[in-house]
Amino acid sequence: MVRVNIVGAGKVGQTLMLLMAGLDGVIVQDVLSQRRESALRATELAKTGRAVDRIADMGAADLWLLTVPDDRIAGVAEQLAGSAAPAMAVHCSGFLSSAVLGPLGAAGWRVASCHPVLSFADPQSAAQQFAGTYCAVEGDSAAVQAITDLVERMGGIPFAVNAQQKALYHAAAVFSNNFAVVVQGIAQDAWAAAGVPQDVAKALGDKLLGGAAANVARLGPQAALTGPAARGDTEVLDAQGAAVAAWHPEAGQAYRVLSDLGWRLKQTGATKGDA
């Protein structure tokens, strides 16, 4: 039986609790959050675990999952190092490596990080979508093995990531996911400014985004890229960039940078000049 404690009952914590609730041989014991109400909601949602008020109230566990915001991980690690018996601790930050758990490592704990590459906008939806989710893992070999086994049992696909390059790794996920959403927001704003009806603009965005995603998956970014930047149509790029800048200066800057990167990608297969 693997006993698991959860520190941080937000969307990631709730999702993992939902996933672990259905696993044989895994028991979610104690759940701590900044607000007791959050911990209570998490235990009610997952129908597992016990909400507590302090780390000192948490029982011994084999695995501690630290699903708190990045800026709280180090503080939680320091608290645990001074109050709990050594075990395994894993945080779920995509940006920080397991080195942030240094106080625990110094106290005899095994530590790792595990970042599921998934949108956690809604815990129930995220739990339903988790099967096949890639999870970046690094840290001590024993902790890596433990979280790898757990991820696989939950339906995820663990993969190794260079701990020294976690920031760049996470930035890649931000570009692939978060910034794609921002660009869709710019497109919707531009269509609205151009007088396109809202329902038509939504349909256009859905159609274009779906097609682009399918083409990238099938062909790769270089072959999938089309449009004036891919063609090197400087007259269109200059005129269109000026129109965008006049409407929305920040979007105009993004348009010019992305156009330059798009041309380079089409010509060389990479966006970085010395790749």
Automatic annotation (TrEMBL):
InterPro entries in the record: 6-PGluconate_DH-like_C_sf, DUF2520, NAD(P)-bd_dom_sf, OxRdtase/DH_put_Rossmann_dom, TM1727-like_C_sf
Pfam hit, one: Rossmann-like
Signal peptide boundaries: none
Domain DUF2520: 133-259
Domain Putative oxidoreductase/dehydrogenase Rossmann-like span(s) in chain numbering: 3-116
The organism's place on the tree of life at top rank: Bacteria
Name of the protein: DUF2520 domain-containing protein
Organism: Donghicola mangrovi
